[in-house]
Amino acid sequence: MFKNVLRIGCFATLVFLLACSPKLNWRNVQAPDQHYTALFPGKPEKMERQLPYQNQELKQSLEAIKIDDDIYSISTIKLPANTAWEASKIVFQLQSNLLDRAKASGGIANVEETTYQTVDHQKFASKDYFITFKANEKIQQMMRVRWITRFSGNGDVWIYQISVLHTNPNSDDSKILLSKEEYETFFNEFYPD
Questions:
Q1: How far is CA 163 from CA 2, 7, 24, 49, 140, in A?
Q2: Superkingdom of the source (predicted)?
Q3: What are the phi and psi torsion angles at 156 (to 5°)?
C-alpha cells in the first residue's frame, strides 16, 4: 500500500511539474556579427539573404521563432559607411511597406513613444508601432514592431527591426494584446551595441 501511495505521489508531482512548465523557454541569444544580444522565447532559426537596393546588394540577417500563434523576429540590415546616409530612407521604406499593407487591408496602426537600451545601458528614444492587418472578417493579424538605427565606430550603420506577429487574436486592440509580459520582455531585452 505504501508503494502505491508513493507511486501516486510521484505521478502527481510529475503531472504538476509538467503543467507548470512554461511554453516559452527564454534564452539569451548573442549575435556578435549583427552587433546585438536579445532574449528569445526559444531557440530562433537564422537566415541570411542579399537585398537589392539601388544597384547594390545589402546583407540582411533574420533570427526568428514561431511559438503557437506568434512569430518573434529580429531583422538586421548592414549599411556600409559609404551608404550610411541612406539609412533613414531605408527605414522609411520598411515602415511604409507595413503601414500601407495594413491600410490596404482595412487595418489600423498606432504609434507609441518608447525607449531602448544599448549593451552599455545607454537609453535612446524610439517608437513602437502597433499594427492590425485584416485578411477577412474571421482572420486578422496584429504586429508590434520597432525600428532602431545604430552607427558603429567604423561608420557602418545597422538597421534593426524587432517584431512580433500574432495571428488570430482574441482582442481588437493590438496595443493591449501585444503589451503583455511575454512581448514586453522580448522588446525590452533587445540590446544593440
A1: 54, 46, 16, 18, 16
A2: Bacteria
A3: -65, 155
Q: How many domains, the chain?
A: 1
Q: Is residue 125 part of a domain?
A: yes
The alpha carbon dihedral of 78, 81, 87, 93 has a sign of negative
Give the integer Cα–Cα distance in Å for 183 and 129: 13
Predicted TM-score (pTM) of the model is 0.84
Virtual torsion, Cα 113, 118, 124, 126, nearest 10 deg: -30
7 class by beta-carbon count within 10 Å (0-12 exposed, 13-18 middle, 19+ buried): exposed
Say which CATH number the domain at 39 has: 3.40.1000
3-state secondary structure 78-94: EECHHHHHHHHHHHHHH
pLDDT in tens, 101-138: 888 888 889 999 999 999 999 999 999 999 988 876 66
Beta-bridge partners for 133: 141
